Amino acid sequence: MKDMQIPGLQDVLSAQRSIRPYLARTPLYSYPALNQLLGTTTYVKHENYQPVGAFKVRGGIHLLQQLSPEERRSGVISASTGNHGQSVAYAAQLFGVQARIVVPEGANPGKVAAIKGMGAQVIAHGTNFDQAKQYCEELTRQHGYRYIHSGNEPYLIAGVATGTLEILEDEPNIDCIIVPIGGGSGAAGACIVAKAINPDIQVIGVQAQASPAAYESWRQGTIVTCENQTFAEGLATGRGFELPQAILREHLDDFLLVSEAEIAQAMVWMIEKAHTLAEAAAASTLAAAYKLRAELAGKKVAIVCSGGNTSLAHLKQALDQVD
């Protein structure tokens, strides 16, 4: 793989400068009802307030800026369940680059519509992310597009890591950061920043029990493939990604799995207690914090609300499960 150097804090600072003209800071809010639920001081990092409704746009903008003139001319292609695709489409439109996004058939219709609305070509293929990714790689070989992997991209990881930098700029005394993990770019970025600024900050990842590939890759110390069945699109990867895993193995303090029911409950809690629409992957951090509430008591905890792009069907599913 090309340019697989692990980014450091200087790379994140450079990314912060590069995305500053295009993205506003997202807020870090604490909610009394959440604090009461968890028994700790909890801050929500609102990446659902990004212009595409998710954190990945940070990485998309930073990466697209680094493309060579030849790569810009050939255009970019990527596979996504939604948010990464929106990020690439948004950044490509910003910089005048043609984007193609391969999505699984039956992907979140709101996310697909948003990708198309940003001028990208949407190609539906396969029943899950892994099949879409395989077809995306085949198209790359056939046509010579610049393939943007959703995890194995140093510029992408440095870009999304700027969210953690903002957390620690706003609340330097954070004790623990909880991050959702699908491919792992966001958690890898959190590890890079937190451990460089204060090695005592605990970084905890969370994934769905129904799609545990990243968790098992981290636990076993090698890239593995697992069943991929979660309804939480942002957690739905069937195989670990090499670059994020290299970072997570060195720096991630803990990794939890949560059930579909726990994720659904957390989506409802985010609405009830933080007046926030969180998609399933974003709500998983609250589910993890609730599971760990005894260990987190008395600490300052930041949970990353990675996106708000839930579908009405998933929202109804969450509300029905809790009822």
Provide an overview of this structure.
This protein is α/β, with parallel strands linked by helices and 323 residues long. It has 2 domains: 213 residues, Rossmann fold; 94 residues, 3-Layer(aba) Sandwich (Rossmann fold). It contains 16 helices and 10 strands. Strands 1-2-10-7-8-9 form a 6-stranded mixed β-sheet, sandwiched between helices. Strand 7, helix 10 and strand 8 form a beta-alpha-beta unit. Helix 3 packs parallel to helix 5 and helix 10 runs parallel beside helix 12. The radius of gyration is 18 Å and the shape is globular. The model has no long low-confidence stretch (mean pLDDT 95). Its cofactor is pyridoxal 5'-phosphate. InterPro entries: Ser/Thr_Dehydratase, TrpB-like_PALP, TrpB-like_PALP_sf. Keywords: Lyase, Pyridoxal phosphate. It holds the Pfam family PALP. This is Threonine dehydratase.
Q: What are the segments in which pLDDT stays under 50 over at least 5 consecutive residues?
A: none
- CATH fold-level label of the largest domain: Rossmann fold
Count of helix runs: 16
- How would you sum up the major sheet? 6 strands, mixed
Q: Roughly how many Å apart are the termini?
A: 47 Å
One letter per element, helices H and strands E, the order comes to HEHEHHEHEHEHEHHEHEHHEHHHEH
Q: What gyration radius follows from the Cα positions, in whole Å?
A: 18 Å
Q: How many distinct folded domains?
A: 2
How much strand?
A: 5-15%
Task: Please supply descriptive tags for the structure shown above.
Rossmann fold; TrpB-like_PALP; Ser/Thr_Dehydratase; 323 residues; alpha/beta; lyase; 4-stranded parallel β-sheet; single chain; Threonine dehydratase
